[in-house]
Design goal:
Length: about 100
Amino acid sequence: MNGDPSVGRTFVPPRDTWQKPGNDRAARDADWRDCGGAANGGYHVSTAEGASAAVIQQALGRTFDDLQRCMLGQGYRYTGSCEGEIRSRYPACQSPGTKKPGGQ
């Protein structure tokens, strides 16, 4: 494959994969930031200068899991994908209110 594999794909910020009945977009965005997410809908971590890719990846994983737990704790339902080995282990995908692959 040549080129950028993301060309032609629409990027959906992680913040936009959460819904809560009665909440509008502004409330969700504020809750996302309160949980530690970035204003652009993503998230970031701080690691020591020169940290290895593995350390950075672990920090990103922990931060994303913490964000999910926080949003679940605030009454949100995850609407993103739970398909695949990694995604199926997300805290949000373990939530009873989340639709699992195959409609379960």
